[in-house]
Amino acid sequence: MSAIQTDFGRIDENLNVFVTDNGVERLIGSQPTMTAEQAIALYVKRYEDLAASVRLLEQRVKAKADAKSVSKSATKLIADLESPAAIGDLQSLRDRVKAIRGDLELLTQKANEEHEAAVVEGLAKRESIALDAEKIAAADPNKTNYKNASAKMTELFEAWQILQKSGVRISKSKADEVWSRFSKARNTFESNKRAYFATQDQLAKTSKNAKAELVAKAEALVAKGSEAFLDYRKLLDAWKALPKVKAKSDDALWARFKAAGDAIYAAKVEKSAADDIAFSENLKVKLELLEEAEKIDPEKDLNSAKAALKVIQSKWEKAGKVPRESLRPTEDRLRAVEKKVKDVEQEQWRKSDPATIERTNSMKTQLEESIAKLEKELEAAKGSGDSVKVAKAQEALDTKKAWLAVIANS
User: In angstroms, rounded to a whole number, what is the distance separating the alpha carbons of residues 406 and 410?
Assistant: First the structure.
């Protein structure tokens, strides 16, 4: 049997197979049951399998596959290439794997950095969930919308479960710390919710009893008709002061309470309409009295004006009530006449008051003295020919004279 020689190996006459590895020939096997061609093909195929593994590893690094998995495969491949029973350029495969290990270090470093960033982000997401839960739990239990808040808390819990299931793995100590905050917030919220609704149930019961009593009192007032108007208003104020509780019984109780109020209001409206008709004659009398009162002129004769007003006021009281819509306009017109008389009376008293007269005379004397002095200063200024001094002296003199005119006429 003839021997076969290749670039990287050979087979001798005894079917012993050798590989030339990095310049050194090494026996890698013997295949006595095969032909030389078959034996060579077998060991070349083993080389091609190793080369395929190297190519696959290179592709995984290029695709930025999981660094840990790639590193494990590279370590195994390095071991497989130490002294493989294969014919081919083994050293080139080792060199390529070595190059892969260099790229792998960068890939591992980047993977570690990405993992650390993912851990930070994952922890931040958990802390955000815990913080949102704490805000919900810290809200005023009596002002919380529990339907919305419960839905939000459920949403936060589901988000936490997703992070636990598919998110990056976080150290147990850190995860437990944030979970403890989240769990505490959920428990606080649930406790607040139970306490709130327990309180609402009690309030609803108390409110229902109180409103039932108010309904009974309101219905008892209906028989009094319009006279019960003020008493019903007090009951209405008491109703409004009760805690607002959402209960189905409220609608029925309010319907009865309002029906009683409507009956009382209807009676009041009916009575007011009857009163307006009865009081219309009184209005005519008061309108005539107003015409007479508005002709009073206290400026001419204050004493006569006061006497006339007193007679009108007496008749006004005897005239009685007027319709509601006319009450304010008529009263305002009479008050205006009373004020006019009173203002004139106060002005005359002021002018005749000794203390006022004395103050006025004193001020007049002071102003007259100032005017005399300013007149001399004006003459002196004119004599000097200084136009600025003349203007200032004239202005001051005019001002004092104006004040004197005001006091003289007061």
Answer: 6
Helix H or strand E encompassing 27: strand 24-30
How many CA atoms lie less than 13 Å away from 35 in the CB half-sphere? Answer: 3
Spatial separation of the C-alpha atoms in residues 179 and 146, rounded to whole Å = 23
| Cβ contact 229:264 at 8 Å | yes
Instruction: Note the helical H segments in 139-247.
Output: 146-166, 172-221, 229-241
* Structure token pair of residue 306: 């006061």
Q: Check if the beta carbon of residue 341 is closer than 8 Å to that of residue 306.
A: yes
> What's the pLDDT tens digit per position in 91-120?
999 999 988 887 777 777 776 776 677 777
Tell me the range of 51-65, 350-364, 368-382 where mean pLDDT is highest.
51-65
pLDDT tier, 359 (very low <50, low <70, confident <90, very high otherwise): low
Position 181, amino acid: R
For 263-292, the pLDDT digits (tens) are 887 877 777 666 677 688 888 888 888 888
- Residue 184 to residue 152: CA distance in whole angstroms: 16
- For the chain, the distance separating the N- and C-terminal CA atoms, rounded to the nearest angstrom, is 156
Residue 242 tokens read as 């009760």
pTM above 0.70, yes or no: no
Instruction: Report the C-alpha gap between 312 and 336 in whole angstroms.
Output: 14
User: How far is the C-alpha of 272 from the C-alpha of 231, rounded, in Å?
Assistant: 17
Residue the block writes with tokens 């969930």? 129
Burial bucket for residue 42 (CB in 10 Å: 0-12, 13-18, 19+): middle
